[in-house]
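Predict the holo structure. Ligand: adenosine-5'-triphosphate.
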Amino acid sequence: MSPSLDPVASNTLVLQDVSKTYGETVALAKVSLVVRPGELVVLLGPSGAGKSTIFRCITGLAKPEEGSVEVLGQSITVLPPAKLRLARRDIGLIFQQFNLIGRLSAIKNVLAGRLGYVPAWRVILRLFHTRDRQLALANLDRVGLLHQAYQRANSLSGGQQQRVAIARVLTQESRVVLADEPVSSLDPEASETVLGILRGVCHERGIAVLCSLHQVDLARRYADRIVGLRDGRIVYDGPTEGLQAETLDLIYRRNGAKENETEDSRLRVSA
Ligand SMILES: Nc1ncnc2c1ncn2[C@@H]1O[C@H](COP(=O)(O)OP(=O)(O)OP(=O)(O)O)[C@@H](O)[C@H]1O
């Protein structure tokens, strides 16, 4: 079924035939994918495959030459700047390097998730409503950090900082979350904790999560669905069980797999 014809997906994240080039480099070639509410989709692909470009197209930071990107039914590719800013409120971002303000407490970082909702003067004076503070505390509790709410962010471990970043997107009340290599700088134990929480909140709150990873074993264990990207093209879209050696060869082009796969050689399994 074409992604845009799926009635559930029309309400979350839909990319259809998205192409993006940088000079001679084809970063994305006719990429179509859907992330539904409460679904954690992991993007796998070697360096340069186009994962970050997908994220930039979804947030409107990169403009595709062709195709459309829809977030919660709004077409990001054609929104005027003021409306794009509003639409971005629905897109929570989780980065490899956490992007917290280190000298501020965990709760102040989490409250930053409300910035799109409160007037600028309240932000400058740091006057958040009680409801916002309660929401921030509840979300810190959800990620297991309530007792560290007033600790400076830069005194927390990497795993704890990433959990603060998750609490921030929950406080933003984003219905779409993009996580760009969220565990790349974490040790194995913290990686498991962070991905477990991300999957938990995705399922509990019906958030559509698109998450890029470089660790195939983690993708297998935490994803609801895998999208494999190679040279800007989707070469696999299907369940985690389909991530066998043959599929990994296609994504990572190992064992002498051909340099130029044709359209027919792509493996596309419906989820
Ligand atoms: N601003 C840019 N200018 C020129 N080329 C770019 C730019 N951004 C990305 N590219 C190119 O587009 C292709 C896709 O890059 P992208 O960063 O999306 O890959 P990636 O899968 O996120 O890689 P990584 O896993 O290393 O982060 C690469 O060939 C890259 O060099």
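Residues 195 and 222 are 7 Å apart (CA to CA). The pocket of adenosine-5'-triphosphate is lined by residues 22, 25, 27, 45, 47-53 (CB under 6 Å).
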